[in-house]
Amino acid sequence: MQHLDVLIVGAGPAGIGMALALQKIPDLKFGLVERGRIGESFRRWPLETRFITPSFYSNPFGLADLNAVNEHSSPAHFAAMEHLSGELYADYLNMLVQVHKLPVVTGCKVLEVNTTAAKEFVLETEQGPLSARYVIWATGEYQFPDLQAFTGADYCVHYAQVATWKDFTAPRYTVIGGYESGVDATVNLIKQGRQVRLLVRKASWDRQSDDPSVALSPYSRERLAQAMQSGQLEVIFGVDVTKVSQQDDGSFLIEAADDRNWQEQHQPILATGFVNGGGAQQIARLWEWDEAGKIMLTEADESTLTPGLFLVGPQVRQEDRIYCFIYKFRQRFAMIAQNLALCMALDSSQLDPEPGVWGPFGNSECCEGCEC
């Protein structure tokens, strides 16, 4: 059985970014396992979906690309695009793996994780067992849609199940949910010439907060404003959907808590997000969960229940701070790497000394002709 100091589970932006940080620690033996392909979640995005956070190659002037997972690379520079598709972003991640020779094993699904009396981890995978002193869980959330948001939610098509909006050829659709995925579905359906009924609890585009973790991003707000001028969009507010059922004639009935209801000839589109904890639900017993269904972590992003198990990615929460965007959760990589180096008495001098590496003038040594 192969033994590692640190094993990362998941080869998306959180896993690849974390691996690049660990690579700066000399003599550390680490690896990554990924059940699908590198950047698998992004490769499953609808064909038309684009990043809501813009990419820009500002690295030589000390400001890292918002969607980069390390300090010196730039998705904008790689793809020559500001708002990348999922496929292009996955290709960017794969480029980093190749350039930095990261030890990633794809097609390696983790089946079970157990702890030993020696306070180590044993992971059963489709390619055999692995053991590690520390495990970093980086499985994201996109592949874990919430399909039980209300009774009959399984009658709907979840945003994460859509390959392309070109497949939706009916004259009209109803979209349930008014945050990023709901607005993106609406905008792309209207581009296909469809009429859209959008059911929302509240207007997520109202400027009650400037944090895109809780309010609609400027990119989506701008596109929604254009959609509202199209004459193809009906927005209905104050809707708390409680049930969807299929009628004898094959149509669908959408019911709300205030007794309003709507008939729809085609499957409603569900844009109500992902399960709490995302992929961390695969090892739910190793985490402590709060009353809201969020994972409880130490200040070091370590499980409060299982020492040595860390979480990186969009499910990380620290008090009121929500790290659900790449430009947010990437700032945790160096901190975790430093703590691991300290625990194993390894040299951490090559790691970033402070979070400011991602901010103004943090990348001054990056040259315009670098390989990444």
Order of helices and strands: EHEHHHEEEEEEHEHEEEEEEEEEEHH
**What top-tier CATH class of the largest domain fits best?**
Alpha Beta
- At the fourth level of CATH, the homologous superfamily of the largest domain is FAD/NAD(P)-binding domain
**Individual helix count:** 8
**Compute the gyration radius: what is it?**
22 Å
Beginning-to-end CA distance, first to last residue: 35 Å
CATH topology of the largest domain, by name, is FAD/NAD(P)-binding domain
Helix content: 10-25%
Shape call: globular
Q: Total domains, how many? A: 2
Q: How many beta strands in the DSSP annotation?
A: 19
Largest sheet: 7 strands, mixed
Mean pLDDT: 92
Query: How does the helix and strand content classify structurally?
Result: alpha/beta
- Report the β-strand fraction as a percent range: 15-25%
Task: Name the poorly predicted regions.
Answer: 360-372
Organism: Methylophaga muralis
Keywords: Flavoprotein, Oxidoreductase
Protein name: Glutathione reductase
InterPro entries: FAD/NAD-bd_sf, Ferredoxin-NADP_redctase_2
List keywords for this structure.
single chain, 372 residues, alpha/beta, FAD/NAD(P)-binding domain, 2 domains, seven-stranded mixed beta sheet, five-stranded parallel beta sheet, 19% helix, 21% strand, globular, oxidoreductase activity, oxidoreductase, Ferredoxin-NADP_redctase_2, flavoprotein, Glutathione reductase
